[in-house]
Design goal:
The complex is a heterotrimer of chains A (371), B (293) and C (299).
Chain A (H helix, E strand, L loop, with lengths): L3 E10 L2 E11 L4 E5 L6 H9 L6 E6 L2 E2 L10 E4 L11 H11 L4 H15 L14 H13 L5 E5 L7 H18 L2 E6 L2 H7 L2 E6 L2 E6 L1 H6 L4 H6 L6 E10 L2 E7 L5 E5 L14 E6 L4 E2 L11 E13 L3 E8 L2 E8 L9 E7 L4 E3 L9
Parallel strand pairs in A: 3-8, 3-9, 6-7, 7-8
Antiparallel strand pairs in A: 1-2, 1-4, 4-5, 9-10, 11-12, 11-14, 12-13, 14-20, 15-19, 16-17, 16-19, 17-18
Chain B lengths: L13 H28 L4 H6 L12 H9 L10 H31 L5 H10 L6 H13 L6 H25 L3 H9 L4 H9 L4 H17 L2 H6 L7 H10 L7 H34 L3
Helix pairs in contact in B: 1-13, 3-13, 4-7, 4-10, 5-7, 7-10, 8-9, 10-13, 12-13
Chain C lengths: L10 H35 L16 H6 L3 H32 L6 H9 L6 H11 L6 H7 L16 H26 L3 H9 L4 H12 L1 H17 L2 H6 L11 H11 L3 H30 L1
Helix pairs in contact in C: 1-13, 3-7, 3-10, 4-7, 5-7, 7-10, 8-9, 10-13, 12-13
The chains are: A alpha+beta (371), B mainly alpha (293), C mainly alpha (299).
Chain lengths: 371, 293, 299
């Protein structure tokens, strides 16, 4: 039993089911991020938790209380919206206390709660202004203040940072994380930005097409993606996914790829899971993150199985801290992430060091990870 | 009205521009002339009108025609002037405008923020009512007003204008509220505000412009109406337009053109005033009524 | 916004689900009675032998049959055809020209625009009164020209059975063309300036710019102008009453004046009702497809 239980919940509009049997238990103090491309159902799920949309089947419980059919204001939740949804005709102070007023909290208490929250978020000097006079970052803080003042069981965030410019977004991200660590509140947070998901969450639910594709800690999601969708959606640049063949050579399994020159390249696999055996001599998809492909000097010293692969470099993109190097493997672009001072030149052959500890294999038909 | 574009990409020659200014000025004259001449002639003695040039300024300025039109001119059988009818029109227009605006605002709020299955059909039904020729409802309306015993009275006209104004006001508020962020309504719901609290505390304080549009459009339409006034409120309860028409077309005695003009300007004054004071909203009303956003 | 509709919802939530419908229902009821009920009633009357008062003797299509054999009705229809087509075409032409010219960074636009538009704020009765007199040969324009020494000038259309309908067109255009101007001007101001710059870099002349780039983008404004003007034309009643009273004789009768006089002064309610039904059908033929398309687009 979790703090917030999403128990086999589905959502249909007429005959169309848009959310299929979602089952998530959120523990108290957890920071759950729902991430996925637009239209994946993440916002619908959040709205159902908030009570803004009905539940077609299944149950949502908060602190073991069934929430189906309970009015949003009776769920003891608070929500921060993408547009902030600050009431344009009210001052910041009024915006923050409106919910308390609606719940019948006496004025002196409202005042006190407002002061506390304003101090916490450092917006005391803004209390008498109207939302129209605030900057994007200030509005964001006010919206959070409005949520905090209610002291809710669960905070819901609906893409709260997507209207901010890049720098501010990073700052606010840190603020939210600090706030969570300090207050230890339970948060459900919707975003389409996988970096936000990775940095903020204690657990991530990756959603696509109305299904939860994978639910796990950021590390699980990143290192052991359940399927090709999760593998390519999480991480930037995306994980390289290369058609390959599993073959046994010298008594060890190898992933066999085709180089830019049309010749085969074989990468040895160590400690192969038992499931790999079934794919011997069969096509698979080899998934490997860009940072697992480096120049030999930059390779991870703790890695147990580094495989060398020489191939023609197509493009190099220096990006300050890193240099991204593109080559062609099995007919696909394959990106490597190297130190800025790696000695790589387009049009020349280069010896890449591949950390096969980090490689994963997918079934080309089901697209699920082989494990 | 749209703001002037900062820079139009089109360039025109001097001769073309001269032609454009000439064209625009001629049309300005065309629009100003009939009303302007009416104004000039409303302060002339009758003899100067029948015997003289209509464009000439008066030689003897007089406000007698205005006084006569207001309080002594023969309307129908009584020499009451237009004053009682002017008051009739106010008594009719103000309640009808307020009622239809309030109902339209609530309808627009429901149709955009509390959508339910079939709401588009209901809106379609409401919208079509803006465009029916009112001849199609004259006969049954006369019967109903008779049954309700408000035929030929100002309350009867208020009812009629209220009923046939709902479509327009709903259209205005629906289009306006459609652009109003729904997230605000959701936030207010989570904050615990109910249906009417959201309307009163969140929607209405931001509705100033569209309330102005609705008021102005409804007032102009109701004040200027002739068909309903002529059909359902002859005699003492007649509105200004009907009284003016009676004044102008009364066949007894000499035609006092100057009095007619003064009366016509009186009938036009309230809507013209609204247009001058709040022309921006007037134009928006026209647009909203034409381009169904 | 979807109302929560789970079973077992608490009282407040259920109330909040019903309130919106409750608030909307009086309007719906009023519409169903006062618009659609009344329409049905009038349609029913048009198949009865109603005279001074509604009566319920069924006569089938007889009223329609008689209606189209009444000379005045046919005059009214012909007049409507002449009036509507000229009114729409001329108002659109003037409105479009004024809008295009006003859009050339004109000095004094702020003064000209309200002058073009103010007639729309007037009652048709006021417009009719003004023009009736302005066009009266004895004291109006013709008389003024004579006083200025142009003795041969004649302009007696308003007294002429053949030409009187055109005076209605003049007055109606005077009233509405500024409004059409405003619609087109809004359309012109909505066109992306970068498109115009691109077209000029492509070497388009002003003429081609308007013909090939700008006018096609004003399509919605053309459509709206057509729908609004045709709707106004079919409903026209006040203006004719104030300007010509339907005369000379019944030379300027329109369906709206015909309906009124047959129903309320000639006590031929059945005929009056059938003429109202024809008017409704004509407007519906224009409005229904337009509204349908507009509402569908929104979805």
């Amino acid at each position: 039993m979790g703090f917030l239980d999403i128990d086999n919940v589905t959502k249909s509009y007429g005959a169309v089911e848009v959310l299929h049997r979602v089952d998530i238990d959120v523990q108290e103090g957890e920071f759950l991020v729902l991430v996925g491309p637009s239209g994946c159902g993440k916002s619908t799920l959040l709205n159902m938790i908030a009570g803004l949309e009905g539940i077609t089947s299944g149950e949502i419980r908060i602190k073991d209380r069934v929430m189906n059919g309970v009015h949003p204001s009776k769920r003891n939740i608070a929500m921060v919206f993408q547009s902030y949804a600050l009431y344009p005709n009210m001052t910041v102070g009024k915006n923050i206390t409106f919910g308390l007023e609606m719940h019948g909290t006496p004025a002196p208490e409202r005042e006190k709660a407002m002061k506390e929250v304003a101090q916490l978020l450092q917006i005391e000097h803004l209390l008498d202004r109207k939302p129209g006079q605030l900057s994007g970052g200030q509005r964001q803080r006010v919206a959070m203040g409005r949520a905090l003042v209610r002291n809710p069981d669960v905070f819901l965030f609906d893409e709260p940072l997507s209207n901010l410019d890049a720098k501010l977004r990073v700052d606010m991200r840190t603020e939210i994380k600090k706030l969570h660590q300090r207050l230890g509140t339970t948060i459900v947070y919707v975003t389409h930005d996988q970096i936000e998901a990775m940095t903020l969450s204690t657990r991530i639910a990756v959603m696509y097409d109305g299904y939860v594709q994978q639910l796990g800690t950021p590390k699980e999601i990143y290192d052991s993606p359940a399927n090709l969708f999760v593998a390519t959606f999480m991480g930037s640049p995306a994980m390289n996914v290369l058609p390959a063949k599993l073959a046994e050579r010298n008594g060890a399994l190898h992933a066999v790829l085709t180089g830019a020159d049309g010749q085969e390249r074989a990468l040895r696999i160590e400690n192969a899971p038992a499931a790999y055996a079934a794919y011997k001599d069969a096509p698979v998809m080899l998934g490997i993150r860009p940072e697992a492909i480096t120049d030999p000097e930059g390779a991870d010293r703790n890695a147990r199985n580094i495989q060398m692969l020489t191939n023609r470099v197509t493009v190099t993109e220096p990006a300050g801290a890193d240099t991204f190097v593109t080559m062609t493997l099995s007919g696909k672009d394959c990106i490597a992430r190297m130190r800025a001072d790696a000695d790589v030149h387009p049009g020349h052959d280069f010896e890449f060091a591949i950390n096969m500890d980090k490689a994963v294999l997918f079934d080309p038909k089901t697209e699920d990870r082989i494990a | 009205m749209a703001v002037a574009s900062p820079e139009t990409a089109i360039r025109t020659s001097r001769i073309t521009r001269a032609f454009i200014y000439l064209f625009l000025l001629l049309f300005a004259l065309f629009y100003l002339l009939p009303f302007g001449i009416m104004l000039i002639n409303s302060v002339k003695p009758l003899s100067e009108i029948t015997g003289g040039n209509m464009i000439a300024l008066p030689r003897d300025w007089t406000i007698q025609p205005w006084l006569s039109a207001w309080s002594t001119a023969q309307i129908g059988v009584e020499p009451t002037g237009l004053r009682p009818y002017f008051i009739n029109s106010l008594m009719m227009a103000i309640p009808a405008v307020i009622l239809s605006t309030v109902v339209g605002a609530l309808n627009g709020y429901v149709l955009t923020k509390w959508r339910f299955r079939g709401d588009t059909i209901i809106f379609g039904l409401l919208l079509f009512s803006c465009f029916i020729p009112f001849q199609i409802v004259l006969i049954p309306m006369a019967r109903i007003l008779g049954i309700l015993q408000i035929a030929g009275t100002t309350p009867g006209l208020i009812l009629v204008h209220f009923v046939y104004g709902i479509g327009f006001t709903t259209l205005y508020f629906r289009n306006y509220y459609a652009a109003f962020p729904t997230e605000l309504v959701r936030a207010a719901q989570i904050d615990g505000a109910g249906f009417f609290q959201i309307f009163w505390r969140i929607m209405l304080p931001s509705s100033g412009p569209i309330i102005a549009v609705s008021f102005i459009w409804q007032f102009t339409n109701i004040w200027n109406d002739f068909l309903f006034g002529a059909s359902f409120a002859s005699g003492d309860a007649a509105p200004m337009t009907v009284a003016l028409n009676n004044l102008v077309n009364s066949s007894t005695g000499v035609r006092e053109y100057n009095v007619h003009f003064a009366g016509a300007i009186m009938a036009a004054a309230p809507t013209l005033l609204v247009y001058i004071v709040a022309g921006r909203y007037f134009v928006r009303g026209l647009m909203a009524g034409s381009v169904k956003g | 916004m979807a109302a929560t509709t789970d079973t077992g919802a608490d009282f407040r939530t259920r109330l909040q689900t019903w309130l919106p419908k409750l608030v909307l229902s009086p309007s719906l009821a009023i519409m169903l009675v006062f618009v659609y009920g009344f329409i049905a009633f009038t349609i029913y009357l048009s198949f009865t032998d109603s005279r001074m008062l509604p009566s319920f003797g069924w006569v089938g299509w007889e009223n329609y049959d008689r209606l189209f054999r009444i000379r005045e009705w046919n005059v009214a229809l012909t007049n409507l055809a002449i009036f509507a087509s000229l009114y729409i075409v001329i108002s659109t032409a003037i409105g479009l020209s004024l809008a295009i010219f006003l859009d050339q960074k004109i000095r004094g636009e702020g003064v000209l625009r309200p002058i073009f538009l103010y007639p729309m704020a007037l009652s048709f009765i006021v417009t009719g009164t003004a023009w009736k007199w302005f066009l009266d040969p004895a004291i109006g324009l013709e008389n003024t020209m004579h006083l200025w020494g142009w003795e041969s000038f004649t302009f007696g259309w308003i007294k002429d059975r053949e030409m009187a309908i055109y005076t209605v067109v003049i007055a109606a255009v005077w009233q509405s063309s500024g409004f059409v101007m405003a619609m087109f001007l809004a359309g012109l101001r909505g066109i992306d300036n970068e498109i115009l710059k691109a077209a000029q870099i492509d070497g388009a002349s002003n003429w081609n710019l308007y013909r090939r780039i700008i006018l096609p983008q004003l399509r919605p404004a053309f459509l709206s102008a057509f729908v609004i003007l045709s709707h106004l034309a079919i409903k026209s009643y006040d203006l004719v009453i104030a300007l010509t009273g339907g005369g000379p004789g019944n030379a300027t009768a329109l369906p709206a004046t015909f309906m009124y006089s047959y129903t309320f002064t000639r006590n031929q309610m059945g005929i009056g009702a059938s003429s109202a039904v024809i008017m409704l059908m004509t407007i519906a033929a224009i409005m229904v497809p337009y509204l349908y398309a507009e509402l569908k687009e929104k979805k």
